[in-house]
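Contributing: when you submit paired examples, paste them exactly as shown. First protein:
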Amino acid sequence: MVPLQVLANEFVAVVKHCIEKEKGIPIERKRKYAIEKLLLCELLDKNMYAEAAEKLELWKRLRWIDCEDRRITKRVYLKETKTYRRFVVVDLGVHQILEQNH
């Protein structure tokens, strides 16, 4: 079992890194941030206390990410290309609360 504090610390650090390095797409009207699953898995695999898939599943259960049923990702419409792509969509409200209590 993964300790909640460890999971929260990693969530805050990974999301902050992606925002600072502009490695995602802000969804401002919903206060969310879309990150490619492959990139997120690479970052999560650096701390091997659990597999990236397990961490993402826990994030989903805690509702730290916005997902479709039976998926970790959500379809996001990209205005530039007028297409939909799948991303892990992070709730920035949750990120802000966890960051303040970090």
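Second protein:
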Amino acid sequence: MTLISSRRKAAACLHGNGDLDRALQLYRKVLDLDPRDADALYSMGVLAGESDALEDAVCLMSQSLDLEPTAEKCIFIGKVLEKQNRNAAALAYYRKAKQLDPCGPTTLEALAEALDRRQEYEESSGVWARRLRLECCDSARQLQLRLYLTNALRLAGHLSPAGQVLRQARAMSSGSS
């Protein structure tokens, strides 16, 4: 194990145990050795977000994202931006997450929820429908996703498809009782 990886692992352990100051010190030491360590930048971004240093969180996470793009990082940045009421910028990151992970359930849900909050129901209904198609086993989760889709379709003005999805949800609900 290299010095960088051992410090990163120790910092993650401290972070997990709630010792945020010491974790931050170790992540900084990692960055002193390798300023382009995407994992340390990511972890420092998470720490900053947990400490409500939202600008720092976005900056650090963006640096990590530039080095190693992942949907998870995009979603994290989107959520921090929403905390700052920067909803258009957040939506752009959720869309980027979808480009990186087009079938990821977490990615699709984050995008659909952001679209719903922006009242962009036409697009959100398509994303909810795609997310529903990915759910194969958990009938309770399928029911919840059908209700989200029904709501988005109804608000987008697609009443007939909304009614159809709602009937399917009701059939699922009565079948599981």
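If you have annotations for the second protein, write them as plain sentences, like these:
The chain has a mean pLDDT of 93.
The first helix runs from residue 3 to 16.
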